[in-house]
Amino acid sequence: MSKESLPLKEKLESSKKYLQNADLKGADLAGADLKGALLGGANLHGANMNKIFLGDAQLSKANLTEANLEEANLNSADLNKANLKGANMHQLYARAADLRGANLSNANLTKSNLRQCSMFKSWMKNSDFSGANLQNIKGAQSQMQESKFCSAKLEGADLSGARMEGTDLKGAGLQAANLSRSVLKNSNLEGADLKGANLRYAIGLTAEQIDSALIDKNTLLPNYLKVEWKSETEFKCHTSQQNSTY
Length: 246
What we know:
Elements: H1 8-14, H2 207-211, E1 225-229, E2 235-239
Antiparallel strand pairs: 1-2
């Protein structure tokens, strides 16, 4: 069989080093092995990439809008400024990937693994991260408004300066997370574990939100919120006279 007559997936597997700016819109690449592929700037809009292997691949500025990346492996991939808006990334494995400035809005990331990812100034609006692993992500100044992080693992995450208005963090693990200067107006913190978390300069945070969460004496709160400890685990948060200006 000549190379020209090979199915598309096999062609790409044999020439994966030369795919920059390739037009692969709607392509069926399910299960392909494209480890280390150079796909910077490629158009993969709506492509079927179910269970694809793209570990260490270069996908910076690639168009992955509405792509099916369910159970895909993007371990340590470069997705800097990639567009993943509306993509299906259920159970995606992308540990330590570079997602700085990437667009992950309106996407399904339930039960995905994004542990240790670089997500500085990434866009995560209106997305579902329920049950996802985002431990130790570097997500400072990211846009996370109206997204769901129910029962997500965010321990040790750097979310300083993140916009999180209306975000659902019910039952999320945020132990030792950095939420300083994050915007938490109208966020749901019911059952969220904030033990040891830094919320010192958080904006829009209320006593009612803290009362619904789990904290300990190492949790840092804004100066306008005071905690009265009734026991080692029971507490009541109230707003001091030095009220928030937000």
